[in-house]
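Reply to dn_fold:

You asked what the input looked like. This is it:
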Amino acid sequence: MSLTNDFVLKKNDRVVFLGDSITEQQLYTNYVETYLATRFPELNLTFFNAGWGGDTAPGGVERLDRDVLALKPTVVTLCYGMNDGGYTPPTDEIRNRFVNGMRELVARLKAAHVRVVLLTPGMVDEGANPAMGTVRYNHGGLRVLADEVLRLATTEQLPVFDLHRLMNEIDAKAKAADPKFCMIPDSVHPDPAGHLVMAFGLLQALGIPPLQQSIEVDAAAGKASATPGVVARAKRQRGGTLQLSLKLDRLPFFVEMAARKVLPFLPFQEHFNSCSIRFRGLTASRAWLRMGNTGVYSFRSEDLNTGINFFDQWSSGPMQIAGAIHRFTCEKDQVYFKIWRSLSLNNEKAGPHHAGAHASGIRLMPGLERVRKSMLTRTALACSMELVATDKIGVPSGNGDFIGRWSSVGPFPKPFATDRLGGEAAFTEQIPAMGSWVPCDLDLSNPGNNLVQSFGQMNDCFVYLAAVIDSPVAQTAELLVGSDDGLAVWLNGEQYLSQLEVARGVTVDQDRMPVSLRAGNNLLLLKVTQYGGGWGVCARFAGLSVPVTVRNLSDR
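and this is what came back:
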């Protein structure tokens, strides 16, 4: 995974991603676009996605003038091979057709003075479709085509990355840790985690240098220092709180929740999105850090002494802006895609198109790029954190703090009224063992879609979320919740809300209910239903007389 390619990009480059349905998914391409736009705003880059489902390298040649060269690109990335192999055992005819198509694409792009970047085809998951194993399509067919791409890159002296090898390596590591791991659910098209692996490979092919910054904090002395690109200041406050102020010269990259399952096996953050923050002089066993009312996190002091990645923790502050820019990228690319395909081409892969509509899509891009650039003018970002050392487990939560630390089980298919806990109210009467429940920290900067980020795009299903609320005293409060779509709420064996069969979007605090918290542990259970589209939830308390502490079922 060494970073060996020279830096490909130049100021004012127009980058086109060309490929098949995996490119058309607008996932790895959007990750790369968002990363480059936030890390290198001064380059003023423009991006177009020219992926087409079912396409092959020869098919890319047929539509090169219409769908690529018409965009006046300066850089084109090529990712072909999945369909070229025909999902059959490799033959000389298949290999030669692919090689000839790739050679012609490279020759014509070079003749147009375009810099070309190559990716080998990815992989298929033979566990998701055993038929792929029968024909040896992964390590046989796709490996043959991947080797041809590497040979072409050597012959033409082009930057290249072997996605096939990387994806197989990452998949093997992840499956060794969890046999149920899958990043290609239909065997061919990666999910967001698989696309993050592809984005990691393309960034390397583009020669993007590592981003590895660090912050050192002496918690006892109230002093801080940082590497270039970050300004850090610390100050001790009354009561033992440490106030830390930061100013960043670049936004972090936003890794959406649905892609994060691959991070333990893929060094994306370590290579491209790292700002290590280390705290020295902590005497308590734990500490919590707060950034805004949506970002309160609990850590072991030994982990803070070793260092945590600041870019990997918070959904507020700089990460909230980074998340907004990523969502803007996704919407922007959909606008161009709809004009280019729906209005211009009427979904014809070859043949004529409505030139006026295509031109309209091209003309839209500079305006949309300016909108994103206006969001990026805040690249010198100021933010602050509070650190409090404590021996308590959990995350402090006061009035108005959203609850982000949960455990989850599911999703489960409809009908929504099905009780998957064997007694939903009884479940909350005492804290259960973890069992099949898993930690689930919600992205509270995007409550309208945080469950999609956690579980992927799903339809007609529901999920349970459970959190332990530790209250120092018995007290009454108001629980404020919002959901997309339906919601049921239980606390300590009592059901407070049941409106499962509703289709709605999230509005913060759209349901309000008075609740009673007992001294000690209280178990809060949510059941959130999903018809389709957006899916998310948010919850917080108001009217607390004393702050509470929130933990998931595994925080003991």
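The chain has 15 helices and 25 strands.
Hope that clears it up.
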